[in-house]
Amino acid sequence: MIPGSFLIYLDMTVVNVALPAFREQFGLDLGGLQWIISIYVLAMGVSTPLSGFLADVWGVRTTLVAGLGAFVIGSVLAGLAPGLGVLLAGRAFQGIGGGLASPLASAQLLRAFPPSERGVAFGVFGLVLIVAPATGPLVGGWFVDAGQWRWAFLINIPVGALGVYLSSRHLVDARAKRRPAFDALGALTCTVGCGALLYGSSLAGSLGWGDPATVLFFAIGAACVAVFVPHELWNTKAPLLDLRLYRSGTFASSSSLGHISVVALFGAEFLYPIYLQMLRGLSGVASGAILLPIALGAGLAMPLAGKLYDRVGPRFVVALGYALLVFNSWQMSQLDAATSTRWLVALSAVRGVAIGLTAQSTFASAMSVVAPEAAPRATALITCTRYVVQAMAVPLLATVASTRLSHPIPWAHVHAAAGDTGVLGLCDAMRATTATMDAACTESLRGLSRAYRATCGFAIVGLAVAVFLPGWPGEWPVLQPISRRVARR
């Protein structure tokens, strides 16, 4: 599961630093560049709800392998794309494959490990979810700086093929005892609704929230959700996404915390590379190096978080993670044009530790009340809703960051100031150029500060919710591994 899952989450960020290369290669404007990212998230959001149903029909292993196969095909198309159309088709195939495979990897873990060991299992597996997106900018930056952006996709082929081989040979297959009925209305309203919300979010990032097209697609999404929710709760015996799981307080609070972390953590991740590259003028590799401690911090924290989760429950672990996130987000809101590289690296490391403590602990807590046979539907529900929240958080924070930006950013002057010596950021170039650049830099930094203060607010809400999770200092049913309890008797 690890090779395929690594590729799926790596591709969420690896292309971000390659956008200038795409613009130069295909002559794209901002709208075309945005679609390279949006089509991937859109395809994942549409296909994820179907993964649970297909797993019940085909089996978990077969569906997971099919998803990885589609991802590899998409990587071939994107890596060899002669134009934007083929590139977008490849990204769509990657998204469909990722949407089918990623929820089922977590479902397999739930089946493979007893409750007393799931914290450690999810902690180790969660490294993939953190390391992959965090190393994406570094890998992509290295290929872009070498003039080989196509390898950002082509490198997926051998690793993806290895994932297909290992999954088909070693994963235990499982499917529903009886073939479930297909929830046609649920599938239609969920697919159209998620697609409309995701597409509306992508339009909001480029056209604005009040644009008629944005409002139209959000209205379509809202109408579909208004039909989907009561239908899934009361009108079908085989729901596509089992919303009845939210009747459990633990599942509802834990999954909600996961959604808050998506906004506070991942929703703001796109702001950091913008600050490093566009404002400070760092290269793709240098930016990736500063972002890498996020992965390292998470890599150190996540296995420890898993062990603590098994012993004391989610309350202490998640609350500690959100406390760190409150501190980190506030410090990120104080960034300026002269913030030292050492402090940026330290902030990245703290952010990684916060991710390591919260991301998989909230997921494991939600899944702790789910029966193994319901795992595919539950993971599809959590994953699908997180994609939608993440897709809406990015343009929302982008709007917060760009509000009151009265001066158009004079990128032509920045590039002219850089000349042939390299790339200068807006806040570097302004020191030797015009007052307009000075004002644009100042307002851009203020916008960045507003966005990070907003994520700090979400983190405070998450901390308040986390203290109501089960676990120490209250009771936790699995205080130590079962084997140890048996040994002491």
Automatic annotation (TrEMBL):
Taxonomic lineage: Bacteria, Pseudomonadati, Myxococcota, Myxococcia, Myxococcales
NCBIfam families given in the database record: efflux_EmrB (TIGR00711)
Taxonomic source organism: Pendulispora albinea
Cross-referenced Pfam families: MFS_1
Record PROSITE patterns: MFS
Chief localisation class: membrane
Keywords: Cell membrane, Membrane, Transmembrane, Transmembrane helix, Transport
Subcellular location as annotated: Cell membrane
Family per record: Belongs to the major facilitator superfamily. EmrB family.
Membrane topology of the entry: Multi-pass membrane protein
Major facilitator superfamily (MFS) profile domain sequence ranges: 1-474
Superkingdom in the source lineage: Bacteria
Residue stretches spanning the membrane: 6-23, 35-58, 64-89, 120-143, 149-168, 180-201, 213-234, 255-275, 281-305, 312-330, 454-472
Name of protein: DHA2 family efflux MFS transporter permease subunit
